[in-house]
Specification:
disordered N terminus, TIM Barrel, alpha/beta
Length: 557
């Protein structure tokens, strides 16, 4: 299944995306981004969030979860030297050449590299950090080998471009306000000028994403943000006439009024989208921005939602000639990224301590837990989430149900292993995507699968479907090698309700579900003759309120 799916992804990507080629640079032409071969290109990429700019939610650290607070918490339990060893291992394992190769195999055609300005700037020395640039150089060679162009993204600017943890700021956006604002802006521009100097002739680089998600404090106008962008552009263009400049709007890259008109002939408006409706009318304002200014668009960051949401947003973007870059390729215990790293037990104890829910470990134990978790970030330790990729790359997601795992009758089917496919295709849930405007998943539980289906961990079965509501259903494509009569039994727990089973759209059986609390109960759904061949089973929630664990089919003869 996995190999076939990966082949499907790669073929789909090749079919819809122009591949870099020729001796030129990426550049803009009217309202389109153009590849080195001179042809319009609709990019489909992924960000490497967490690597050179750790965020707490990605590594399960509570609190503000900025690079500064994450380090402070590591130092508090493991000391300065222990924290240094942890972050060295963290950086060595989070993104490796193998990750870049896998990203290319999956079908992505570029990567966005978010970085903290301190990766390139040594504050104590007041000079550029050559080790950071050496890391950039090594990373570019990995990408060159894999054929993946790169967009550099300053994810945390000096002083913080917003007051939030994602800018490594803690209450004040000192890139815009305070006594050091002018110096912070000057340093930001100086760093970009140095990046331009070093990489101006590198054709693998698509361009520079000047600052990630600025949020202007009260009293700072968008005219001032535009002025900063103009000054940064002038400094870069004095050195580098080649690369595309990506300009993000105010308030998390959402609002561009006050930034127009265009101030460079090789720039792109970069907007971000999270937890908002996928109705095309909701996104039309960005198309209007492009058409009214003559400047291309790039959906530079999006994700952290359900597969259905992923598919609808990425499809809309491509249909409107807008490239996208998904957030992000790897996190700890995630369902929304292609790779999920396990949480090491000792690290889980550390997180409990940081949350005030457990004892403080001794320094040796804490460092061992941190290093074990850093090792667990290696790609070989991660779990692959194929459904995330399929929802992004293949139009068939919206219409075709594909087995998540092979099932056969007779046999046992875990309820959580329903078919791959969109809401209404592989399953139906009362809430299949988060459009509410606040961070959060589209399902309760947030484990195992990234659909609307609500899944919880279970100590006995591993996982179970929970939070069921009337009208929801789960579909399973199965093989029946030899026809016969089979009995069906469902394992349920929790509250009572009612469920029904169909095969190829015809009734199999319906039964009341008893309220059994934490104990698994067996619900007899009766017997039915089933012909040999591929069949489609569907479990329908007639009355919700219970958990569903397994379906067991046995010969009734």
């Amino acid at each position: 299944m996995r190999q076939a799916f990966l082949a499907l992804v790669v073929l789909a990507s090749v079919a819809v995306s122009a591949q870099p080629g020729g001796d030129g640079y990426y550049h803009t032409r009217s309202t389109r981004l153009v590849g080195p071969d001179g042809q319009p290109d609709v990019l489909r990429g992924i960000g490497l969030g967490g690597w050179l700019m750790p965020e707490g939610y990605m590594v399960r650290v509570p609190g503000h979860g900025s690079p500064t607070t994450i380090r402070q918490q590591a130092v508090e339990v493991a000391g300065e030297e222990g924290a240094d060893r942890y972050f060295e291992a963290f950086r060595a394992n989070y993104v490796r050449e193998e990750d870049i190769q896998k990203i290319a195999e999956w079908g992505y055609d570029h990567v966005r590299l978010p970085f903290h300005y301190k990766v390139l700037w040594d504050e104590e020395a007041g000079a550029f950090d050559e080790s950071g640039f050496a890391l950039f150089d090594e990373f570019l060679e990995w990408c060159r080998e894999a054929g993946l162009p790169v967009i550099f993204d300053m994810h945390a600017a000096p002083g913080g471009q917003s007051e939030h943890n994602i800018a490594d700021a803690h209450g004040t956006a000192e890139l815009w306000v305070g006594p050091n604002a002018a110096a912070n802006q000057a340093l930001t521009i100086r760093i970009w000028a140095e990046v331009a100097r070093r990489y101006r002739d590198d054709r693998l680089v698509i361009g520079y994403d000047i600052i990630n998600e600025p949020v202007l404090p009260e009293g700072v106008t968008r005219a001032e943000l535009r002025d900063f962008y103009v000054r940064a552009t002038e400094a870069i263009r004095a050195i580098d006439p080649h690369h595309v400049l990506f300009i993000e709007g105010d308030f998390f890259a959402n609002f561009f009024d006050g930034l127009t008109p265009a101030f460079d002939d090789n720039m792109v408006w970069s907007f971000h989208k999270y937890w908002s409706p996928t109705d095309p009318a909701e996104m039309a304002r960005f198309v209007e921005l492009r058409d009214s200014t003559g400047v291309p668009l790039w959906l530079g960051e999006t994700g952290e939602n359900s597969n259905d949401w992923f598919h609808e947003v990425s499809t809309w973007a491509v249909e409107n000639g807008i490239g996208w870059n998904w957030w992000t390729h790897k996190k700890i215990e995630t369902v929304t990224s292609p790779l999920s790293a396990p949480m090491w037990p000792g690290y889980r104890d550390l997180v409990a301590y940081w949350r005030g829910e457990g004892p403080k470990p001794d320094r040796e134990t804490a460092e061992a837990a941190l290093l074990a978790q850093a090792a667990a970030l290696h790609i070989d330790s991660t779990t692959f989430r194929p459904d995330v990729l399929w929802s992004l790359f293949d139009p068939a997601w919206a219409t075709l149900a594909v087995p998540f795992k092979p099932h056969a009758l007779p046999g046992t089917i875990d309820a959580v292993d329903y078919d791959l496919g969109a809401d209404g295709v592989g399953y139906h849930d009362a809430r299949s995507k988060n459009e509410g405007g606040t961070p959060g998943l589209a399902n309760e539980g947030g484990v195992y699968r990234n659909d609307g289906v609500d899944i919880a961990r279970d100590g006995e079965l591993g996982h179970r479907v929970g939070w069921t509501e009337a009208g929801e259903w789960l579909q399973y494509t199965v093989r029946v090698p030899a026809g016969g009569t089979f009995g069906a039994v469902a394992s349920t727990s929790g509250g009572g309700g009612r469920l029904a089973l169909t095969v190829d759209g015809e009734p199999w059986g319906e039964a009341a579900v008893p309220a059994s609390g934490a104990t698994w109960a067996e619900v007899d759904l009766g017997t039915r003759a089933v012909p040999a061949g591929p069949r489609v089973l569907r479990v329908e929630i007639v009355e919700g309120g219970f958990d569903l664990g397994r379906l067991t089919f046995v010969p009734a003869d």
